[in-house]
Specification:
alpha/beta, 8-stranded mixed beta sheet, 4-stranded mixed beta sheet, 12 strands
C-alpha cells in the first residue's frame, strides 16, 4: 500500500522503517532537522525490531494522496499537522497513533470524509537524534474506536499493519485509551528530574509519587464511568483494585511495569521532547487527568502539580531536583 505518515519522531520513524521493510510505499511528513536528516540519510532504526535503514520520500506535507494515513505527531501538534495535510488526505482512512484521549475526535472533526481510528502503541523508542530511532521495548499495538466491538475496517487496517509490526483490533477502544493514559503516568516524574523511567521507579520516594499519579488517574476514570480496557497486563478489575490500595502497596504497579521495560534506559516521550528543546504533551497526559477530574466535580492535585513542574522544566531548560518534586507534589 501507499501509506502516508505524518510525524516522523520516535513512533512515526519506527512505523515508517518497519512498513518499508514489509514492502509498503511510504511517504513521511516531517519538519526541521528531522525532515533534513530523512531526506539526506533516510530513517535508521535499531533495537528491539532489528536494524533497518529505510529510504522514504519526505516533505513538509504529504505530496501524493495515500491509501492509508498514520498520524504520529505529538498530541499538541496534531491539529496543525492534520490541517496542513487535510486537502490531500480527507477521505482516506486515518489512524491516529497518539497519547491522550482526544486524537480520534480531533481527526474526525478536521477530516469529515475520512474514517478515523485510533491506535495505542506501547512500543518504547528513543528519538534523540534526527532520523535515528532506537526501539528499547517492542510491543503489540492496539487499534480501534469508540466503546463498541472492533468493526470490519479496524480489523482490516490492523491486518495490513500487522504484516510489519504486531497490531490487534480491539473492542472498547475508549476504555483502552484510559488504560494507556494510566501507563503514561510514568512520563512526568522522569521528565522533571531528568532520569530514566527505570531510575525513577527504583527510587522509593519517587516511585511513591508515580504510584500516586497513577492511582489518582484511575480514580478519575472511575468517576467518569470508564470501564478500563485490557492493555499490558492491566485491565478493569486490576485497576479498580489498585485504586483502593494504600500507596505503600500500590507501588507494586509501577514496579511491575519497570521490570517489563528491561535494562535499556527508557527516557519516556515527555523527557525526549525536553531534551530536544521542544514543547511536551504533558497537557494531554496529566493535564487530561486534571480536566477529566474537573468534569467529574473532583480535584486532581497530584497531576496538577506534576503538570506545573513539567512546564517549569520547559521554561528553565534544565531538570529539577527530586526534593523539589517531593516538596511540590501532595502525596
Amino acid at each position: 500500500m501507499r501509506i502516508g505518515i505524518i510525524g516522523a519522531g520516535a513512533l512515526g520513524g519506527t512505523f515508517a522503517a518497519l512498513l518499508v521493510r514489509a514492502g509498503h510505499d511510504i511517504e513521511v511528513a516531517a519538519r526541521g532537522a528531522g525532515l533534513a536528516a530523512i531526506r539526506e540519510s533516510g530513517i535508521r532504526m535499531s533495537g528491539g525490531y532489528g536494524d533497518v535503514h529505510a529510504t522514504v520520500a519526505a516533505s513538509e506535507t504529504l505530496s501524493i494522496r495515500p491509501d492509508l494515513v498514520l498520524v504520529c505527531t505529538k498530541a499538541q501538534d496534531a491539529e496543525a499537522a492534520i490541517t496542513a495535510n487535510a486537502l490531500r488526505i480527507d477521505g482516506v482512512p486515518v489512524v491516529v497513533v497518539q497519547n491522550g484521549l482526544d486524537g480520534v475526535a480531533t481527526a474526525t472533526r478536521l477530516l469529515p470524509q475520512s474514517s478515523c481510528m485510533g491506535m495505542l502503541s506501547i512500543i518504547a523508542a528513543n528519538y534523540t537524534e534526527p532520523g535515528v530511532v532506537r526501539v528499547t521495548t517492542p510491543a503489540t499495538s492496539y487499534l480501534g474506536r469508540g466503546d463498541g466491538p472492533a468493526d470490519a475496517e479496524c480489523v482490516r487496517v490492523a491486518g495490513v499493519l500487522s504484516g510489519a509490526v504486531p497490531v490487534v483490533a480491539i473492542d472498547g477502544f475508549r476504555g483502552a485509551q484510559w488504560t494507556k493514559l494510566i501507563v503514561n503516568m510514568l512520563n512526568a516524574v522522569p521528565a522533571i528530574v531528568g532520569e530514566s523511567v527505570q531510575d525513577v521507579v527504583d527510587d522509593p520516594r519517587l516511585r511513591r509519587v508515580v504510584a500516586a499519579s497513577m492511582r489518582e488517574a484511575v480514580r478519575v476514570g472511575i468517576a467518569r464511568g470508564i470501564r478500563f480496557g485490557s492493555l499490558q497486563g492491566l485491565g478493569d478489575r486490576r485497576l479498580r483494585l489498585f485504586a483502593r490500595l494504600p500507596l505503600a502497596i500500590g507501588q507494586v504497579l509501577p514496579w511491575s511495569m519497570r521490570i517489563r521495560m528491561g535494562g535499556v534506559p527508557n527516557l519516556g516521550s515527555t523527557q525526549q521532547s525536553l531534551r530536544r528543546g521542544q514543547p511536551t504533551e504533558i497537557d494531554f497526559l496529566n493535564g487530561a487527568v486534571v480536566r477529566e477530574a474537573s468534569a467529574a466535580g473532583l480535584d486532581a492535585p497530584v497531576s496538577r502539580a506534576l503538570t506545573a513542574l513539567v512546564h517549569e522544566v520547559e521554561r528553565r531548560g534544565e531538570p529539577l531536583t527530586p526534593d523539589r518534586v517531593l516538596a511540590d507534589v501532595p502525596v
